[in-house]
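DM from R.C. (forwarded with permission)

"hey, sorry to bug you on a friday — could you get me a structure for this? deadline for the figure draft is monday and I only need the backbone to look sensible"
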Amino acid sequence: MNCEEARTQFVDYWRGTLEDSNEFRTHLGSCERCHAEAEELRDLWGTLGALPDEDPSMALRVRFYDSLRSWRQHQAQRRQPFWWLRHPALRGQPAGVGWGAGKACIVLSEHDLEHVEPGQVLVTQVAGPALTAVLERVVGVVAELGGSTSHLASLARERGIPAVLGVADATRRIPHGATVAVDGVTGVVRFMQ
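My reply, with the result:
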């Protein structure tokens, strides 16, 4: 049995259109590549909660797995450098993706939004709808109020911006212009004074 036949039988088996076959199980046990792909398909289908209506073509699967691998590599590269660990840390609820660093811009009211420059980290008290206009310019968001299910959190995730919400006294403790690192995965904000 070759790899393509084993993949087809695997998909048919998981759809319920093929009785249990030892042939494809034997092949998956001996071919590392097919075994890894079967595991990824099983995880994907488990995440979706259902099997796709039709078997995706091999080219589509290859593109999907290539993009998934590159996304995982990209996320691994966006983690904080180790030297940030010696700086003061504030904790909150992780609400965005990845990691970002830049100069802090403290925003206490909607009138201060005009001072936000590209590449800065937005540090604010309240996450209101007016912040939507500046999200395209910032590399991270720190807010005193809100949580991982708030509107600001979903906007940050959609745009791929690291965000930490629910950070107590962030606008008072982080100095304006300080270099800030926002980890949207762990919910930690570090800053250099």
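R.C.: lifesaver. The longest strand covers residues 99-107.
me: no worries. Residues 3-77 form one domain.
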